[in-house]
Design goal:
mainly beta; 144 residues; five-stranded mixed beta barrel; 2 domains; globular; 11 strands; six-stranded mixed beta sheet
Length: 144
C-alpha cells in the first residue's frame, strides 16, 4: 500500500466522530453499493483502509468503506465488482484544470483529467472558493 495519508488529514477514530472537521479531505460525490449518486458538501474521509479503499463519513452520519475512483461524479457505479460503494475526490490544478484523484500518497496525489491525461503532484487542502488554482505547482483539494 505504501505510506498512508497522515492521520491529521483525516478524522481517525470514534472520538473524532461528529467533532470539528475543519481541514479534513472532503468527498466530492459518492454512490453507495446499489444506491444513487450523492453530490456532497459534508462527506469526508475518516480513515485509509488500503491504497484505494477508505472509510467515509456520509451525509447521513453513517460510516462505510468505499472505493476511490478517478471519474466524474456521474460515472460512479452502483454495482461495483468489489462489492463496495464508490466515491470521488476532485482537485484543481494551478491552471484551473479540474482533475479526479486516483490515488493518495502521504504528500502527493495521482490524478486523471477529464480528457484522460494522467499526472501526479503535491497537494494542498483549501476550502471551497480559495482552491481555484491559487497555489502554483500544487493540486488543490477541497476540505470541509
Amino acid at each position: 500500500m505504501g505510506r498512508p495519508i497522515r492521520k491529521d488529514r483525516m478524522v481517525s477514530g470514534s472520538s473524532d466522530f461528529g467533532a470539528d472537521n475543519e481541514g479534513k479531505i472532503g468527498v466530492t460525490a459518492y454512490r453507495t453499493f446499489g444506491g444513487s449518486k450523492v453530490d456532497s458538501a459534508t462527506a469526508y474521509i475518516v480513515a485509509q483502509r488500503s491504497s484505494k479503499n477508505f472509510k467515509i463519513h456520509l451525509d447521513d452520519s453513517t460510516e462505510v468503506v468505499m472505493n476511490l475512483k478517478a471519474v466524474a461524479p456521474g460515472s460512479l457505479a452502483n454495482d461495483s465488482s468489489t462489492g463496495l460503494g464508490e466515491f470521488m475526490v476532485q482537485g484543481i490544478l494551478d491552471d484551473s484544470t479540474v482533475v479526479y484523484i486516483s490515488k493518495f500518497h502521504n504528500n502527493t496525489v495521482q490524478y486523471v483529467t477529464a480528457g484522460g491525461a494522467t499526472g501526479s503532484g503535491p497537494y494542498v487542502r483549501n476550502a471551497e472558493g480559495t482552491d481555484e488554482g491559487k497555489v502554483a505547482g500544487k493540486v488543490n483539494i477541497n476540505v470541509l
